[in-house]
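stuck on this one:
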Amino acid sequence: VQPYTILVLGQKLAAGTAEVEKPVLVTSEAQANTLFGEGSMLAQMVEACRKADSFTEMYCLPLEDDSAGVAATGAITLSGMPTASGTLCVYIGGKRITSGVTASQSLANVAEALASAINAETSLCVTAEADDETSGKVNLTCKWKGLTGNDIDVRLNYYSGEECPTGLQALVTAMSGGTSNPDISDALANMGDFTHYNIVIMPYTDGNNLKLLDEELDDRWGPMRQLEGLA
């Protein structure tokens, strides 16, 4: 039977043990967390891929942040005063975080509790910190640098039955400000001249990286290599 292989490009965190720009076989989400760091782009990509396809052989090609890049940021700003106890339900990158609220609790304490709840979920793609100057504001920062952090979805009360405690309001400032994805040219050079990847999963849509990947796949498909594949 002809083997079928997936290659996933993405960024790792400094805590990850994987060697950068070298393909590595990944067989589980737990292994991905060790290799790339919990909450990293690549760890989350592996999680999503395994939910869709749990059996196809998968390699990952880890990248470091561009040193000139900037991490995306956002915020959740709370206002009002809770007049009844309840629960804040926040969704970050599709993952649900809950934080308890008590009646008459100060906005500063609500924000600190929410930030702690977010940071306790280590698989999230952001870190959180209560703002020092604006009471009730929780600042969010993507764990990696680059444009992709701008697409992280942040919302409250997605499902029926979820609502802010009475008297408390929340405003989400969308993630933005992330700049400069890593350049994938060196990583592509390490794919292996005759190593066959049927599917390449590419997180970057900036023109430079799309051009580099297009050229690599075009060359791999050519008569001298004959390695068909799709991104």
About this structure: The first strand starts at residue 5 and ends at 11. Residues 109 and 191 are 50 Å apart (CA to CA). The longest helix spans residues 207-221.
